[in-house]
Amino acid sequence: MIGPESSRGSCPPSQAERPRRKALNRLIEQPIFRKGYDEYREKVRDVYDGTRGAILATCSVLSLHMPLGERLFKERRFDLNGARRILDVGSGAGQIAGHLLKYADPEAEITCFDLSHEMLRRARQRLKSSRPRYVVADLTRLPFPEAYFDCVTCGYVLEHLPDPRMGLAELARVMMPGARMLLLTTEENFAGAWTSLIWRCRSYNRQELARICHELGLLWRQELWFTKMHRVLRAGGICVEIVKQ
User: Fold this and answer.
1) What is the pTM (predicted TM-score) of this model?
2) 203 and 193 in contact (C-beta within 8 Å)?
């Protein structure tokens, strides 16, 4: 297991020891979350209901996130074999859901949820599959029972929360003990700052996010990289396999 500090399971850092957020990311993100979460959530829904949401799938292809993300499933670096109840968080235009339909076991139950009803409509239209269950939901208030899912995929959704605990705690609640999660999110760096500007979201410090997950019983099993070059350059954002204790 990869803990927030090391594989030896050292204690989480104190407030004084926590890594400082990069100034550029703080400067960009502060106005985004200045107002209350409810108001911000409505702005996010407007963004994805609109033009930017309509071109999201195309952006995912052009940025190579879709083809590179598929390799994680195709090469079984995140293995879907044996998963029976899969939750796709913030399904958007169905980018990850398309991979789930292709690589999950045929009998696996797939649930896709998103804050935007319009994005789910686009996902249905794009995937052309009646297999997934589509649900309009807020990541901070999930309409699912406790310990229901044994597999979760969460791709570039967590950055739309001012505090990741708001969503991670809910995901931990609906995950069975031993359930696995593929988490992808925007990292706190120069590329992450541009992402924040375009999509009105925040970015995360890798060590800080690992510590928060650890506190919620979500242990980082392994860090994943799209390619060897991404690993060398420490590029592509945060991509990890997480296991619920």
Assistant:
1) 0.82
2) yes
